[in-house]
Write a structure and sequence with these properties.
This protein is mainly beta and 266 residues long. The protein contains three helices and 16 strands.
């Protein structure tokens, strides 16, 4: 599942975004980060305590050997929960960024014990022409198996998308995602810089789940706070909150939006 309130507000059309949350959403995106960053994320779906996710992420750039990241997350309650720890790396090669990540998952069900599995993910991003960006990501390419019973495996998900900046204040996103066990979904999002270096508005949707999302981001020096609200007609509302901190000036090599770097990190 995607991580970060920015992605949630954009309908989870996040495959082209270069930010801290790319560590989970498309590992290639962390290659643009120039300063160490850390962040925390929490979401609750439909007002149900058992449908709560929390995550911690951190990245550390090096001068010659790319950018490295560590992520942890937990979903669920004492009846059912899944948690993971993952490590990934990404490197920028001119106009292209590539990355790979390994996650160790543990799924637990009360009364039935727990199972562990290891997943592999790869991703890429590229600047096609000025203002137009491409992203692709494949998760669980090894089709990790939880148990031999019914050949139960963790989801294998592939997504590809485009990001377009028609102006300095506007970012348009479009993406398609395919879980090999389900129908494909189309996702789209819009991000608009309302106040320079300070405040961003966002909205997005997904077709498969009929989800409409809204959100905002706020920059306060080296802190970035993002919030998103989502509505699924038959199930209810969801809330997403993320906070990140940059240990230094927030700069990236390849801006997704041609605006100050602090806004690019939203």
């Amino acid at each position: 599942m995607p991580v970060g309130a920015r992605a949630a507000a954009l309908g989870n059309a996040s495959v082209t975004l270069p930010d801290l949350w790319a560590l989970h959403n498309n590992i290639a995106g962390i290659s643009d980060l120039m300063q160490p960053q850390a962040g925390a994320y929490a979401e609750n779906r439909f007002g149900v305590r058992a449908f709560t996710t929390v995550a911690l992420l951190g990245v550390y750039p090096t001068k010659k050997y790319g950018v490295y990241g560590l992520s942890l997350s937990r979903f669920g309650d004492e009846l059912y929960n899944r948690q993971h720890v993952g490590i990934g790396a990404a490197h920028k090669l001119g106009q292209f960024s590539v990355g790979a990540k390994v996650d160790v998952w543990q799924v637990s069900v009360q009364g039935y014990g727990s199972r562990k599995a290891v997943t592999l993910a790869i991703g890429g991003q590229a600047k096609i022409v000025p203002g137009l960006y491409f992203g692709a990501h494949a998760y669980n390419i090894n089709q990790a198996k939880l148990t031999a019973f019914e050949d139960e495996r963790l989801p294998t998900v592939m997504k590809v998308g485009l990001g377009y900046t028609p102006s300095k204040k506007l970012l348009l996103l479009a993406e398609t995602e395919k879980n090999i066990d389900h129908d494909a979904t189309f996702k789209a999002g819009i991000e608009y810089q309302l106040l320079p270096d300070k405040f961003i508005l966002r909205t997005g949707f997904q077709t498969l789940t009929n989800t409409l999302n809204f959100g905002a981001g706020f920059v306060a020096r080296q802190f970035i706070v993002d919030y998103a609200f989502g509505n699924t007609t038959h199930l209810g509302n969801s809330h997403h909150l993320s906070v990140s901190y940059s240990f230094g000036a927030q700069t990236i090599v390849q801006p997704v939006v041609n605006m100050p770097a602090t806004i690019n990190q939203l």
